[in-house]
Amino acid sequence: MTVALSSLRPVHVVGIGLHRYQKPSETTFVELGLVAVRAALSDARLDWRAVESAYVGQATLGIAAGREFLRYLGATGLSIAQVENASASGSTAFRQACLEVASGISDVALAVGVDKAAPVSRASSKAGIPSLTGPAMIPAAVFAMMASAYMHAHDVSAADVARVAVKNHGNASKNPFAHFQRARSLEEVLAEPAIAGCLTRLQCCPIGDGAAAVIVASDDAIRRFELARSRSVRVAASVSTSERLYAQGEWASQELTRDAAARAYEQAGIGPKDLDVVELHDAFSIEEILYTEAMGLCGPGDGARYLQSGGSAIGGECAVSASGGLLAMGHPLGPTGIGQICEITRQLRGEAGERQHPDARWGLAHMVGVGQVCVVHVLREPDRTAP
């Protein structure tokens, strides 16, 4: 029998921290990771010795990266595990930390993602099975084909797809942790060089350096360490799934999203119209349009119109990628999914500043990883009446 996270011990996000996402730099991954973890500890007002377990999401650093920087916080004997799941590495690390606390194995766990921009070697290249498609199936080309098919099917223009990047770069211009911090006009987005099909450079996510950290804790830990319950965001659902067989004409990443979101809604006891903030995998602009439909935020074929109507804007029906998303906040791989949790936590606490979506109560974080995998979490606002 499947056991939902909501049926186990309550899990709360009590601390968040980020190192700004940035272009490839001389900053070591040790410094990146330490900045994020120390910020999360400070945010939670928690001592490092209270952390019993750490899950380290990364894709480019090699073995034992977590131990290499966490040791500078003190040798406490905590459990450390590396997590790699392509773009969903950080989301998976966060899920493992939540499950450990929910099961009672630990009371306080850390999920930290850190990566440096570097070539990534896919296991498929070492599988001993020749590729039938070769470089034609690089992600940009795949999503360009998806964009072309969608545009043809729903009478959507290249400008309509590009408006995703306009919105998200505008959001990132108000985010001090974002890779890009400059608002862009539609004309600027369309004028950039094409990477694949209609997808110009600003419609494809930047991959650079960065780190993000989240501390999760049980009710017992919140009481024992006298943490602020009024800033503790409840993790209401956690779902991880992989591809199945799809009908002709169905796109794996969109159907994965549909399946995972439906399961997450069931766990959390909500529907898509209850969501106030969503951070999703928008590595390419067309993805936001496809995934808002798959999540049920709008109807099939209505994603571009939902965007144009302001439904996905901060202050609209549901703020989608208020951080700037992968397109402008950035996509340093290992940290990305954890950074999404940081943004949603800020929003649900009411601490997002210029990016604050009014009266945010429910949030959803979504990441797709090469493979194909999909990880979705639903978070609920803190108890604002608690101390």
Question: Secondary-structure map with pairings?
Answer:
Elements: E1 12-22, H1 29-44, E2 53-57, H2 65-70, E3 79-83, H3 89-103, E4 108-115, H4 139-154, H5 158-172, H6 186-191, E5 194-196, E6 199-200, E7 209-217, H7 219-224, E8 233-242, H8 252-268, E9 277-279, H9 285-294, H10 303-308, E10 319-320, H11 325-328, H12 336-349, E11 362-369, E12 373-380
Parallel strand pairs: 2-3, 2-4, 9-10, 9-11
Antiparallel strand pairs: 1-7, 1-8, 4-7, 5-6, 8-12, 11-12
Helix pairs in contact: 3-12, 5-9, 8-9
Between the first and last Cα atoms, what is the distance in angstroms? 37 Å
Average pLDDT across residues? 94
Query: What's the overall geometry?
Result: globular
Give the biggest sheet. Answer: 10 strands, mixed
What's the tally of helices?
12
CATH topology label of the largest domain: Peroxisomal Thiolase, Chain A, domain 1
At the fourth level of CATH, the homologous superfamily of the largest domain is Thiolase/Chalcone synthase
Please state how the strands of the largest beta sheet are arranged side by side. Answer: 3-2-4-7-1-8-12-11-9-10
Number of strands: 12
Q: How much is the radius of gyration in Å?
A: 20 Å
Return the domain count: 2
Specify the structural class.
Answer: alpha/beta
Task: Give a short synopsis of this structure.
With 387 residues, the chain is an alpha/beta fold. The protein has helices at residues 29-44, 65-70, 89-103, 139-154, 158-172, 186-191, 219-224, 252-268, 285-294, 303-308, 325-328, 336-349, and strands spanning 12-22, 53-57, 79-83, 108-115, 194-196, 199-200, 209-217, 233-242, 277-279, 319-320, 362-369, 373-380.
